[in-house]
Design brief:
Elements: E1 10-13, E2 21-26, H1 27-30, E3 35-37, E4 49-52, E5 62-63, E6 67-73, E7 76-81, E8 88-91, E9 102-111, E10 116-122, H2 129-134, E11 143-146, E12 154-159, E13 175-179, E14 187-197, H3 198-202, E15 208-214, E16 217-225, E17 229-236, E18 240-248, E19 254-260, E20 263-270, E21 277-278, E22 281-282, E23 289-299, E24 305-315, E25 326-331, H4 351-358, E26 361-367, H5 373-382, H6 386-389, H7 405-411, E27 415-420, E28 437-439, H8 456-470, E29 475-480, H9 503-514, H10 521-526, H11 531-537, H12 541-572, E30 579-584, E31 590-591, E32 597-598, H13 605-608, E33 609-610, E34 612-615, E35 624-631, H14 635-643, H15 657-660, E36 673-677, E37 690-696, E38 699-706, E39 714-718, H16 734-753, H17 759-764, H18 768-776
Parallel strand pairs: 25-29, 25-30, 26-35, 27-28, 27-29
Antiparallel strand pairs: 1-2, 2-24, 3-17, 4-14, 5-8, 6-7, 7-14, 8-13, 9-12, 9-14, 10-11, 10-13, 15-16, 16-24, 16-28, 17-23, 18-21, 18-22, 18-24, 19-20, 19-23, 26-33, 26-34, 30-34, 31-32, 36-37, 37-38, 38-39
Helix pairs in contact: 8-12
């Protein structure tokens, strides 16, 4: 956040010793000083989506599971909970074809007891009450608010931005399920339930800056309403252009105009709503001049909304003596490094990744700090340990006080772009901080019959045109495909690259045979049994896993082909030597290595040992191999150090530059590698551990500080000889266990002492203008 709040007119050195300036002017940051004219009262929007109970007319709400005595009385809908997951339900009958998204839910109610109320939605014909109740513990409902229990009616305003997902399209809100309390025996009285959609919200606030999405592609945005004009007094740099996309929520035409002083530079009418349209504008004729840049909007209907997406004045062909033109970070989700040929796998699963390693640096022993995306990716992108950033629940968000990699590049004047197939690496975890353009996973439309996890091809299709249009400005890209993630089956032809033609049919038969024996509801749905469950069902465990690995390897090969397209484009654009490319993963995957499937749940090597490759021909020697154990938390400090940007003080990793460039004169000191696993609230009743591990001096110690009966408190492994943690040698090395346990405890105390300030703590230190700006971009609630 600190870097985000720097001055908008960024004049920064791209690297230490560089004498070239990279000047950008971001209009979203200049907006507080802009002149806004032409504001009119917005026309009335569509009828509000609201249910009130102060009339005798049919309200539509019905009692679902766990509710008794639902009736109208004195203008309120009253009832009583008979379970801890009581549900009342209503079906929405209008607005289902509207592509707008939910802004907030407002509930007026009195609730006698309980901790939280909850709201969820269903878009199908079936309201899904039974499924929502069954999964309430495993997958908490997305919208929630603390209850103020008592006799008084309270107003509960629940922002959609607080949910652990990017958005709630109107088309997916056919059924509204309300869980008014989370305890049995509570009385509730509801005065009203209202859904406020984004268009209604924007029509009632002044023009301003916000984090706005169209079809789940988000941009830092200036929002104005016709016939408003927003004018900016600027000094125009040389070789400049206005990087801009426009869009609207309106079904009728909206016209966008851009002018400087009296010269009209753009007239662009948008007739298709909910779609960004790129309209870059050359400004070379205004080099080294001062003038007034005006954004104006017109439409037949006063108050029509227009989005000016990521409007930035950039300079072309900014050169740096030392830093790269661009940085591309590719994180391939759920990837074990032992399934890559670069790491010794006997199948050629990733020839392009191997080529990256051969022409750059291969880290032989990189360790992830978390065993699932929600924990590992925020740790990597902010260079903070999970204990310090506080993330372990699905709904947790990175505190705004964190400094992300994207923020560092944004502050240095880079164009920042990100796209992900995993919802945890976007707005739902507050990882959009510093990103100018973000393609959320909800924007991805996969071909019919193809798993949504196979996302690399779509993401690369989005990236390549953006690279074309930004190849001559400093750029930063974060790309997060998830192709290796379950379900493992890739699209053709990769499904038969190593798998048998009838492999899927035979595997499906095995899954159906074992499914009745799978105890976990989640694993049952996914078709991912434990080894013991396979044995109980009489299913050959080795054959079961071999098919999964055939498909897993095929998915890796499919993603690698798309990575090859990126490398090809860099070569085509003349950027191969001038781009730092980093490839890594967030965690691995278990295939019965310790008797289970999937990820999460432990800190064993199959989940924590991840690939890490860096290529930058101008600075990193080809065929560099680094044997030292390093952490994924070190990646961002390393990138910033290589590029020549300052590493924010809150980042906890160490730069690996000394390992990459031994001749640099810098020294590397070995340090512990830490991984953490903390059960979520919904897993507290499961037979699993809470654990931390430390790798140091060739050994790996696991501390199961919360564990089921009969499970060891400590496990010790020879990390070099036993990277998948199969042979526990703790009983033979008590002195090593004691020493590493002491160091792990000391590290944990340090991580707690260096915890990031919460948003509540940070807000106390911000002035009102800074706080409003962060709220408008969705960084704090």
């Amino acid at each position: 956040m600190r870097l985000l709040l720097q001055s908008v007119l960024v004049v920064t050195l791209l690297s230490c010793g560089s004498t070239n300036e990279n000047t950008v002017i971001r209009l979203v940051d200049e907006f507080p000083s802009a002149s806004i004219t032409g504001t009119v009262e917005a026309a009335a929007t569509a009828e509000p989506t609201e249910w009130r109970f102060d009339a005798d007319e049919e309200h539509g709400f019905t009692a679902g599971a766990g509710v008794t005595g639902l009736t109208l009385r004195d203008g309120r809908l009253i009832g009583r909970s008979s379970t801890s997951v009581p549900v009342i339900h209503v079906e929405r009958t209008h607005g289902l074809d509207d592509p707008d998204v939910l802004h907030e839910v407002i509930i007026r109610a009195r609730i006698s007891e309980g901790t939280n109320l909850w709201v969820t939605f269903s878009g199908g014909e079936d309201p899904g009450i039974e499924r929502a109740v069954e999964r309430a513990d495993d997958f908490p409902w997305p919208l929630t608010s603390p209850i103020v229990a008592g006799d008084a009616v309270q107003t509960y305003t629940i922002s959609a931005a607080s949910a652990p997902r990017a958005s709630f399209p109107s088309s997916g809100i056919r059924h509204i399920l309300l869980r008014p309390t989370d305890v049995s025996g509570a009385d509730f009285e509801i005065e009203s339930v209202r859904l406020v959609f984004r268009k209604e919200h924007l029509a009632n606030i002044p023009a301003g800056v916000g984090w706005q999405g169209l079809s789940e592609i988000y941009r830092e945005t200036i929002v104005t309403r016709a016939p408003e004009e927003a004018s900016f007094e600027l000094s125009f740099p040389s070789r400049a252009f206005l990087d801009l996309a426009v869009g609207t929520l309106e079904e009728s035409p909206v016209t966008f105009r851009v002018s400087i002083d009296d010269e009209l530079l753009l007239t662009h009418t948008v007739t298709t709503p909910h779609r960004w349209e790129a309209v870059p504008i050359e400004l070379t004729a205004f080099a080294d001049r001062q003038g007034t840049l005006t954004l104006s909007l017109s439409a037949e209907q006063p108050g029509a909304i227009g989005f000016w997406g990521a409007p930035v004045l950039r300079r072309r062909n900014v050169q740096s003596a030392d830093g790269p033109r661009g940085v591309i970070v590719i994180l391939l989700d759920t990837l074990r490094r032992d399934r890559l040929d670069a790491y010794g796998h006997d199948r050629e699963t990733a020839p392009h990744i191997r080529s990256l390693a051969e022409n750059g640096a291969l880290f032989k022993d990189a360790i992830a700090q978390g065993a699932w995306t929600k924990v590992s990716v925020p740790s990597m992108l902010s260079s903070t340990y999970p204990t310090s950033n506080g993330i372990y629940e699905m709904y947790h968000k990175l505190p705004a006080s964190a400094d992300t990699m994207a923020e560092a590049f944004r502050a240095a004047g880079y164009a920042t772009w990100a796209a992900s197939g995993n919802g945890f690496s976007g707005r739902s975890t507050n990882l959009h901080q510093g990103v100018e353009v973000l393609h959320e996973n909800g924007s991805l439309k996969v071909p019919e019959g193809q798993s949504r996890s196979k996302s690399a091809r779509i993401l690369v299709d989005r990236l390549l045109p953006w690279l074309e249009s930004h190849h001559d400005v400093p750029f930063f890209v974060y790309l997060h495909p998830i192709d290796p993630h379950s379900p493992y089956e890739p699209y053709r032809p990769y499904d038969t690259k190593w798998g048998a033609l009838d492999g899927k049919e035979r595997h499906d038969e095995r899954v159906e045979k074992v499914r009745p024996f799978i105890e976990s509801d989640f694993q049952k749905r996914m078709g991912l049994p434990l080894r013991g469950e396979l044995e109980e069902a009489g299913v050959d465990a080795e054959a079961f896993v071999q098919h999964e690995l055939d498909m897993y390897d095929g998915s890796i090969r499919a993603a690698d082909a798309e990575i090859g397209r990126i490398l090809e484009k860099l070569s085509e654009l003349g950027l191969e030597e001038d781009t730092l490319v980093v490839f890594l993963s967030d965690h691995g995957e278990e295939f019965l290595d310790h008797g289970g499937h999937f990820h999460e749940e432990n800190v064993y090597g199959e989940l924590t040992n991840v690939p890490l490759v860096m290529r930058w021909p101008r600075r990193i020697a080809a065929e560099t191999v680094i044997e030292d154990t390093v952490e994924i938390v070190d990646v961002v400090p390393t990138i910033l150090d290589l590029v020549g940007l300052p590493v924010p003080e809150k980042m906890q990793g160490e730069s690996l530059k000394a390992l990459l460039m031994p001749s640099s004169g810098e020294r590397w000191t070995a340090k512990p590698a830490i991984t953490e696993w903390t059960r979520r609230t919904d897993q507290r009743d499961e037979e699993m551990v809470d654990a931390r591990s430390i790798i140091l001096d060739g050994y790996k110690l696991i501390h199961n500080f919360e564990r089921p009966d009969g499970f060891p408190e400590y496990e010790l492994y020879d990390h070099a000889k036993d990277p998948l943690d199969q042979n526990d040698i703790a009983s033979d090395h008590a002195e090593i266990v004691e020493r590493l346990a002491s160091q792990l405890a000391a590290w944990h105390e340090w991580a707690l002492a260096n915890a990031l300030p919460s948003d509540a703590e940070s807000m106390e230190a911000l002035d009102s203008e800074e706080l409003e700006r962060l709220r408008s971009l969705g960084y704090v609630q």
